[in-house]
Amino acid sequence: MKDIFTAPFVEEMKRTTANMYRLGWDERNGGNISYMLDEKEVAEYLDLNHVIRTIPTGFEAEELIGKIFIVTGTGKYFKNVEGDPETNLGIIRIAEDGTTAELLWGYKDGGRFTSELPAHLMSHMARLSVDPENRVVIHSHPTNTLAMNFVHELDEKKFTHTLWEMCTECIVVFPDGVGILPWMLCGTNSIGEATAEKMKEFRLVIWSLHGIYGAGKNLDETFGLIETVEKAAQIYMLTAHLPRINTIQDKNMVELAEFFGVNYRKDFLNL
Questions:
Q1: d(Cα 38, Cα 72) in Å, to the nearest integer?
Q2: Looking at the predicted structure, is the pLDDT value of residue 6 above 90?
Q3: 161-178 in b/e burial notation, b at 16+ Cβ within 10 A?
Q4: Residues 78 and 60 in one domain
Q5: 241 CB burial (10 A radius; 0-12, 13-18, 19+)
Q6: Are residues 256 and 137 in the same domain?
Q7: Which residue range forms the structural domain that includes residue 85?
Q8: Taking the mean position of all CA atoms in its chain, how far away is CA 269?
Q9: Helix axis angle, 143-151 relative to 219-239, nearest 10°?
Q10: How far apart are the first and last CA of the chain?
Q11: How far is Cα 114 from Cα 158, in angstroms, rounded to an integer?
Q12: Residues with catalytic roles
């Protein structure tokens, strides 16, 4: 059996959480990540027949029975993952009843997965229904994206259009735009259900006045989606109070999208 501490998926989680904390996206115990793993790869590092303990999820995820995830822990700080992954991360498998998680590794201090795991599982199911390769869901609180929530209309078309105007790459990186939910109580199945519904249409969903959810095929892609939105939001916040002399026009966005062959939201442009 290989050393779990050298597993690529553990190393990826360590790097990603460290970067997100360094960038100020995940203060204190803010933010969470769930990453669906390949069973054969996990079996190289763990005895899949050895279940440390079981933890109720508070949600029925029948479509994910048998799936294995590495998930950040509740109350855990991203800044501590790199130094002590076994305490701050856990590897779980959705049990046969669909409502229980079997702990295969981690949470060694008796902890458990993020309280927003149901929202993650709902988003995983929603994304898998439209993209079978989806494996990652990330929730974070990027500073400029959050700041933009307070000064910009929280309308999906207008918000997306503004972001697309900020960086040439934006319409290429997230051509499907950004979904937006009104402020809702976090940590509930209600916000999870609302997020999952948006995830059928968007890979990025803003929780108004709270943060953002992103989904993708791997950690790099998902991190990059949020990173690009955050960069665009930063440019907006740096320039919103100034007279705009130049801008990326809609005709330029169409040219970009068609050149790179991305399926963009034409209804989010003013053509």
A1: 18
A2: yes
A3: bbbbbbbeebbbbbbbbb
A4: yes
A5: exposed
A6: yes
A7: 1-114
A8: 25
A9: 50
A10: 58
A11: 32
A12: 116
Helix, strand, or coil here: 33?
A: strand
Give the closest residue to 62 by CA, choosing from 107, 114, 28, 99. Answer: 99
Q: What is the pLDDT of residue 187?
A: 83
Task: Please check the confidence at residue 95 and state whether its pLDDT lies above 90.
Answer: yes
**Alpha carbon distance 84, 225 (integer Å):** 27
Question: What rounded mean pLDDT belongs to the chain?
Answer: 96
Q: Looking at the structure, tell me whether residues 11 and 106 fall in a common domain.
A: yes
Can you give the pLDDT at residue 271?
A: 81
Q: With beta carbons less than 8 A apart as the criterion, state whether 101 and 95 touch.
A: yes
What is the token pair recorded at 69? Answer: 């995830």
The DSSP call for residue 38 is P
Q: What's the confidence (pLDDT) of residue 193?
A: 94
**Across-strand partners of 101?**
55, 94
Q: What is the CATH number of the domain that holds 30?
A: 3.40.225.10
| Residue written as token pair 């029975």 | 65
Number of domains the chain is built from: 2
Q: Which residues contact 85 (CB under 8 A, 6 or more apart)?
A: 5, 10, 13, 14, 106
Report which DSSP code applies to 8.
Answer: H
pLDDT digits (tens, 9 = 90+) for 165-216: 999 999 999 999 999 999 999 888 899 999 999 999 999 999 999 999 999 9
Q: How many CB atoms lie within 10 A of CB 133?
A: 10
Q: Is the dihedral of CA 44, 47, 49, 50 positive or negative?
A: negative
Q: Which of 68, 87, 114 finishes a domain?
A: 114
Residues 66 and 174 placed together within one structural domain of the fold: no
- If asked whether residues 79 and 130 sit together in one domain, one would say no
